[in-house]
Amino acid sequence: MKHLLRILEGRLEALPVRMAVQLPAGQRLGARNAAVTLWFRDRMALVALATGEIGNVGAAIVEGKVALEGSMRELMAAAAGLLATSPVQDPHQHWWHRVLARARSMAVHTLQHDARHVRFHYDLSDDFYALWLDPRRVYSCAYFCHPGMTLARAQEAKLDLICRKLRLQPGERFLDIGAGWGALLLWAAEHYGVDATGITLSRNQHVHVQQLITARGLQGRVRVQLCDYRELQAGQPFDKVASVGMFEHVGRAKMHAYFVAVRKLLRPGGLLLNHGITAGGVDNVQLGAGMGDFIEQYIFPGGELLHASAVLHDLAQAGLEMVDTENLRPHYARTLWAWSDALEAVLEPAREVLQQQATAEQADKTLRAYRLYLAGSALGFERGWMALHQILAVRPDGDMRSGTMTGAQSAYPFTRDYMYTKDSAVCSINSSPDQPPI
């Protein structure tokens, strides 16, 4: 124990923030006037702290074995300093871990399991999410056109960027896979005039989007279905498809089949915009230092991240051609800090909302888990442990065009100017900062 405490003292002294540790027996280590203090009631959690297993320390905080005093931002700065190795270069993850992970992925990602996993997270409480998301409840990476943008405006900018990348046109058939609380679905219908279909596995989100469609009088050209992408019956293929924050739930073993299914839903020449979190490491099965296990247990059971290179491999094998890829990693770090700060500002109301559906003890555990998840994810995107890629792909139609389009197999433009040079009200510096959802 003495050796462990000496190691811990040395690590605390080297941190970029003042941190203290209160031991179960009452002894205190670390800085005076600490910005962050951890009160330990469990000796095994001390071992995790000393060895840099910060995900396991997080789990101990959630379970009430460690109490936290201090801000999330300072805690994350300390956590980064405590790591023994990069979590995307975990020495404990060998080739056979990847084999086992693929076998597990095959077993876990069935229709029934995927629906259960999605509802575990997204059906937690609409009122809880509404406390710290923007007014449209966009639960994915925002797009900050300008440094001074608020989160609400940056989310609208993201919705519009997706629509511009897809070159949405009035009357086109548009599919939103994993429609969330309906922000993209309604934005595309109201601003670009498409005939929009959304699908989701979340019962809460399905009800919410149906209510929005009715309230806005969009029943004729917007609809939402409670179904898996593998179950969707489309009378005819769609012109454009978006999948935002959804393919993280697909699983590495099912990724090829996912893109095959999306290709079948697209007409020849149609475009797919796949927006989702990707792994920062090429080979790691999940984040090391216990962080991947923390996410699996408390936040996203069944969630799996692939490196962008693996995603592009499966996409190409499915017969889709990547025509543009953009990494919005820094945008997601800023988005997550905005969510984290917003949740920190409403901790008591959040606790009260969660207690409406669970015991006080379970509500407190959930709140602690989400505080660590949001701030920890922000840290992960800042450090490059995770990334966020928007991948634009086309289903080639085989029409070898003549003239200036020689060599093309679809009508996709030869340059990307259209994505960023088009006037966009939401990205205008002179646009009003915060407006209620239309």
From TrEMBL:
One of its GO terms (molecular function) is methyltransferase activity. SUPFAM superfamilies: S-adenosyl-L-methionine-dependent methyltransferases. One of its GO terms (biological process) is methylation. InterPro entries: CFA/CMAS, CMAS, SAM-dependent_MTases_sf. Pfam families: CMAS. Keywords: Lipid metabolism, Methyltransferase, S-adenosyl-L-methionine, Transferase. The keyword Cytoplasm does not apply. It comes from the Bacteria. This is Cyclopropane-fatty-acyl-phospholipid synthase. Belongs to the CFA/CMAS family.
